[in-house]
């Protein structure tokens, strides 16, 4: 429900939004029940902010041009992209992980991120994550 609207070009904008709504509702229910045992609170907040930014992006684009084809993959959120990249790396690049393994890999990725904040010269970031959308500079 989270990745499909960003990677499937065959989804309509309605299908993209429905998929994201499903994701945030499932995320909320799991976080409400398990709190930080499920995921760190700041990661939960990042997911909710990503959802809000996606909805704002669609609303703003459709307000400016109702006939415009909206692609959520153009939204981008560097912090989450980097976190998912690090989670994928920590998980041995396995596309399918169990929830407990994902939590472990996410914690490891956050730890690596903290190290890179302390020693930014150690990190070699991919150049394509450095793209800036001037109209979307207000990432939360």
- Listing every helix as H and every strand as E from the N terminus to the C terminus, the arrangement reads HHHHH
* DSSP strand count: 0
Distance between the termini: 21 Å
Strand content: under 5%
Helix % is 55-70%
Shape: globular
Please identify the structural class as seen in this structure. mainly alpha
For the sheet with most strands, the description reads: none
Written account of the structure:
The model is unreliable at 133-140 (pLDDT under 50). The longest helix has 24 residues, at 41-64. The chain contains five helices and no strands. It starts with a helix and ends in a 22-residue tail after the last helix. The protein has helices at residues 4-7, 13-34, 41-64, 78-90, 99-118. The chain has 140 residues and is mainly α. Helices cover 59% and strands 0% of the residues.
Topology:
Elements: H1 4-7, H2 13-34, H3 41-64, H4 78-90, H5 99-118
């Amino acid at each position: 429900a989270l990745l499909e609207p960003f990677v499937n070009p065959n989804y309509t904008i309605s299908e993209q939004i429905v998929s994201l709504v499903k994701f945030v509702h499932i995320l909320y229910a799991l976080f409400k029940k398990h709190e930080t045992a499920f995921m760190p609170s700041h990661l939960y907040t990042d997911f909710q902010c990503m959802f809000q930014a996606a909805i704002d992006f669609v609303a703003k684009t459709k307000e400016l041009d109702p006939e415009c084809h909206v692609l959520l993959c153009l939204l981008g959120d560097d912090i989450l992209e980097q976190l998912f990249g690090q989670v994928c790396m920590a998980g041995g690049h396995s596309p399918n992980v169990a929830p407990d393994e994902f939590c472990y890999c996410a914690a490891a990725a956050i730890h690596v991120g903290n190290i890179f904040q302390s020693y930014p010269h150690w990190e070699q970031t991919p150049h394509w994550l450095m793209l800036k959308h001037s109209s979307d500079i207000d990432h939360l």
